[in-house]
Structures are given as C-alpha cells and as structure tokens.
Design a protein that fits this description.
Length: 287
Amino acid sequence: MNIAWKKSAGRFALLTAAPLIYGAGISLFLDPNHLAPGGMTGISVILSYLTGAGTGTILFLLNLPILILGAWKFGLRFIMKTGYVVMLTSFVTEILADRGAVTEDPLLAGLAGGVLIACGIGIAFRAGATTGGMDIIIKILRRRYRHLKTGFLFLCSDLVIASLSGFIFRDLNVALYALITVIISGRTLNFVLYGGDEARMFYIITERPREIGERLLKNLEAGVTYLQGKGGFTGKDKEIVFCAVHGPQGPQVEEIVKEEDPSAFMIVTSASEIYGEGYKDLFADVL
C-alpha cells in the first residue's frame, strides 16, 4: 500500500467521521432541546421550529448557495470535499432526528452538543474541507484576516444567532443555554485545530548567554537565537538569548537559567501559534 493511497484513505475517513459526529451533535442533543448553536445549523434549528421541515433538509438547502460561493473562491476540489461533508451531515441529521434527545437536560445537551459539533468542524478542517455554511464564510475571512482565530470568528457569528433564538423560542433560558453551547464549541474548536500544548517564549538577559544557549540546544533541542542589545543604564553591549519551546518544557528552561545564572533577567510569554521546524508547517493550508 503506497503512501499516497494511505493519505487519501485517511483523509476520506476524516471526511466521513466529521459529519457523523456533527450530525449526532445536532440531532441527539441540540435540535430536540431547541438549542441553536449559531451558524447555519442554528438558523436551521430555528427555521425547522417555525416551518416544521426537517433540520437536515433545511441545512442542505441553506448550504447550496454557499457551496457555489466556495467553489468560486476555493476551487472544485475543495468544494467537492465540502459538498460531501454537507450532504452526509444533512443525511445523518435527518436519520438521527427520529431517535429523539439523548438527554432533556438543556445544560447537558448544550455541553455535549457543543463539543460534538466543534469536533466535527475541526476534523473537517483538518481534512481540508468544512461543514459548509458559516465555515466557508469564515474560511474566506481567515484568508484576509489571518490574525483572527477561527474559534473567535465562529464565536462572534454564533452569539448573534444564539441570542436571536431566545426571541424566536420566547425563552431566555434557551438562549442562555445556547450561549453556553457556543462558548464550549469555540473553546473545543480551538483545541482541535491548534492543540493544547501552548508554546512559551523566553527572552533571557544574562552574563552567560552562550552557556545557557548551548544547554538549551543540547538538553532540550530547542532553537536558540542570540539577539543584540545594549543596557540602558550601563551602555554595555549584551547578547539576549531568545528561544521558544513547547509548554511542558518551560520549567526545564527556567531550571537551566537558574543553574547557569541565578541573577539573569528573564521574560516569559505565551505563544498560541508557532510556525517552523518542530512546530506547524509554514506552508500548510491556513484555516
């Protein structure tokens, strides 16, 4: 079995798993509890309540013009994968609708449903597709405004729709539970897309920059850069050690610095995304 075939099979498996998970979140948790999580899914839940039509059917019809927009922006290959996800999601949503709610507790339904739909969206994104609807619109926005997180963009659009659901269903509690779903979904999506190992950046001002840098390279295999600086008070030239490591390695960096120079001045900050060797692929598709 060659590598290309394995990759294709793996991607197809992800494209199939995403709508199964997403559709289960809608039909088994959110829709029967009148929880509109935002996006086209939330709009579909609301329109299903108003018209009596199936949520899956409405979801598919709403996605048709957006799929055309996606074909124009991202090409036929992308839209074929997304179209497959959209059709399977609609089908799964309709099939599972007859099973009813797994739980009638709106809080539990909101938590479980939010996690499931976020996982479905994240898996689809990982496979180079989307679940349609707002996913495509947000993907377009991410190409133009890359500094904005996908989860943040979903949060903004979803808050509006979740709030609207409170007026449609005439129940403030429903809107509040939907907002909980949106928040949980946004946090879960960021975790699925970006991972939980947030990186740490270190700026180390020390009298022993080479010794510390060599130990970081040898013990942690961490990339090290020596920056040139000048002391504002002394006027002396200094070398500043700069490095980025995965979160769990942070305490090890601090220990090395303490051992080499207890009087070192060290600034530690967080980095939500790092591209390059050992981290994310700089040339991978940005979602």
